[in-house]
Write a structure and sequence with these properties.
Layout lengths: L2 H7 L2 E4 L1 H8 L3 H10 L8 E5 H15 L1 H14 L1 E3 L5 H10 L4 H13 L3 E3 L7 H11 L3 E3 L4
Parallel strand pairs: 1-2, 1-4, 2-3, 4-5
Length: 150
């Protein structure tokens, strides 16, 4: 699936933790694409996230750069991402987790994509293999997209 074609057709998107971490760690091809379509002032794509995602981003940044840097990073994320409260996501995330052995945060990201009826972008992960993606997409009507080598 061509990611750029997908980004041209949507107005809402959920980025999983791995995608945001890759973006801010200067993954060149992915960064160019996300800058072009999402992370610029004229972007027409609204980016959604949840509090578990923010917790993951915080602790990853904190471990590498300290708490002050992590807090600043989260403030930056808050300027570009709309955070949806867990009260809207927990039950659907629980249903996904009940059927598929993936990280709870991934379940929340997928749940948010279902709530907003928008795609969820993941980096390749051991838990998010092709069979799992197809199963979740089929069972729940999700639109999971795994970023392949760009």
């Amino acid at each position: 699936m061509n990611l750029e074609k997908v980004l041209l057709k949507i107005d809402e998107l959920v980025l999983d933790t791995g995608v945001i971490i890759e973006y801010f760690m200067n993954h060149q091809s992915l960064g160019i694409l996300l800058d072009k379509h999402i992370f610029h002032p004229e972007s027409k794509i609204t980016l959604y996230g949840h509090n578990l995602l923010k917790s993951e981003l915080y602790y990853v940044r904190c471990r590498k750069h300290g708490r002050e840097s992590a807090a600043k990073f989260i403030k930056h994320i808050d300027r570009v991402m709309v955070t949806i409260g867990d009260q809207w996501l927990f039950e659907q995330a629980g249903k996904i987790k009940c059927l598929f052995p993936i990280a709870l945060s991934d379940c929340y990201s997928i749940s948010l994509g279902l709530l907003r009826e928008c795609p969820v972008l993941f980096m390749p992960e051991y838990e998010i293999d092709k069979k799992t993606v197809e199963g979740i997409n089929s069972e729940f009507g999700a639109r999971i997209i795994v970023v392949q080598d760009l």
